[in-house]
Amino acid sequence: MASPSAKELDEVCPSNTDVDVDVVTALARCLVSFIAHPNPQVRLAAIEGAVPYSLTHPNIFKIHDLQPVRNLKVLLRDHPKIGGHALTILVNLSGEDDVLDSLTTDDKFLDLVLSKIVVPTEPNANLLSMLLANMSKRDNLKDIIKKRQTPPEELKSDDLVINQLLDLFVKGFDGTYNKHANYDYLAYFFADLTKHEEVRKHFITRQSYDGTFPIAKLNVFTEHKSEIRRRGVASTIKNVTFEVSSHPDFLSESDINVLPYILLPIMGGEEYDEDDMLDMLPDLQLLPPDKQREPNPDIIQTHVETLTLLASTRDAREYMREVKVYPLIRETHARVDHEGVREACERLVQLLMGEEAKDGEEGQAEDEDEDNQLVEV
């Protein structure tokens, strides 16, 4: 794209500097005043020097009713180096509520971000992923579920933006789609979006263009080398399992089939009773003794909480008993020294090892189950 015009970059240059302002702040203000300079070399030098101040002096980017922030948004269309520095500053500033509001309520800016991130040659795609992850903390970003744009031919997706981002996350993890990016931070983006019911329902609706449940595309990343991916995917799966009506699809081997992908990360190389082992899911049998358990206990806790959500119906509990989930949770409880993990394991064990109601008492038991179910906060 062409560089922004001088009119688009409304230069912010303070007419004077307060005499009591320290030298560092004065220098930072001076640099920020030149990020909109018509000369691209001046813009590049100024914005490169301004990056550290977005962490130490965020308020200097808020002068004149956030005019520097508006300039930074325009600079995304500038030379990739300038655009990259602008994105870095916006990522740093998006922890500020007023800046985040400015970003998430600007629909044209969001469209620009979404159109750029899917381009297979975009050098700043990872920064765009980080920015989207931060922007998704605002509830209004759930409307992205309605957005459409023409996908690049290389992506082989459909025109729904959310599907394009999912396909981007799947196809771009190893740099084969875009050598500049791995899109890991989209995992956090999905995790925040799936706090909203309409987004969750999309993730459990089989898509006509590829015949796949969107949430099923994320399963394989529960054991990915990137902790960012593992953490974000674990949270996304947990959020989507709040849709209890779809639990049969989650457990079905021909549909979402999430169970082995949740259980594998929490397993180490422990030995199990032979009868128990033979009843486990095929993917969990005969694991090597050097099999490594997920190293982050918070992610293990998330997986166990997901299992607890899935165990909220009687059919699911009976299935988990059949495939010997209890021995796996028992070993996790014994081997992971983390209070949150142990408490989550104990809650799940209470569900799996508790006595089920007899046929005549089933209605009463279901009412009790509803009282004890986890409620999304």
UniProtKB/TrEMBL annotation:
Limits of the Protein HGH1 N-terminal domain: 116-301
Domain Protein HGH1 C-terminal: 306-359
Domain of life: Eukaryota
This protein's name: Related to FAM203 family protein C1020.12c
InterPro entries attached to this UniProt entry: ARM-type_fold, Hgh1, Protein_HGH1_C, Protein_HGH1_N
Family: Belongs to the HGH1 family.
Organism for this UniProt entry: Cephalotrichum gorgonifer
Compositionally biased region (Acidic residues): 362-377
Region annotated Disordered, chain positions: 356-377
